[in-house]
Amino acid sequence: MALLVAQATTEASVKPTPKGDAPWITNDDYPSEEARVHHEGVVAFALQVDASGHAVKCDVTATSGYAGLDKQTCFLMMRRARFNPALEHGVAVDSHVAGNFTWRLGKAPPYRIGVDGAVGVPAPVPPGSLQLTVAALPSDYRQATRAEVAFRSNHGVVDCRILESSGSVAIDRVACGQLRALAAAPASISGASAPKTAEYIVSFRTDAPAKP
Asked: Dihedral angle at the C-alpha atoms of 98, 124, 200, 206, nearest 10 degrees?
């Protein structure tokens, strides 16, 4: 069972509150490699939340002891966490939210309950992640690009398809170009045939120019 506990640490007169009822992280999101070797742990994190209620920065404040669990926690919180923003004198302001997430397995890798209540549908493999640094981002860039990469039988990339656009055609094109060069075919699990496709989230950041 995985548990998310978030606590606002802002000094604003109205603290940020989570938006929506669905959990942002569940055990279906367990990193496959960490599940395979039965790694468990608690990740404590701090989010920077902007005035629109989006998480714009995530720092691990106490590690689970496993880099894969730490990275997946911040990746998913940045991707999914949405808040009603903090208010100061009625005006939305930036704030910070602290929380923790417990990754815990039973005796086997995580399984999802089927629509009909049956157990045994394997949890989906979380998307891979790729972060790219660029000099500047176009004005129409809104979010990370989600793409699906298809592989040949020799594990080479044969195609890249945009599933969720960044808002910028140019950025989506860069994302697919880098995935064609860098994406690795997923390994087979428990003797099954190796997957022919894999999803990736490609995020972009800009580096501030170095001080003279």
From this structure: 0
For the stretch 112-121, pLDDT in tens is 333 333 333 3
| 47-86 pLDDT tens trace | 999 998 888 899 999 898 899 999 999 998 888 888 888 8
CATH number at residue 103: 3.30.2420.10
- Give the CA angle between residues 3, 14, 58 to the nearest 5°: 45
Instruction: Report pLDDT for 23.
Output: 74
Whether residues 93 and 32 fall in one domain = yes
Domain that residue 107 falls in: 4-112
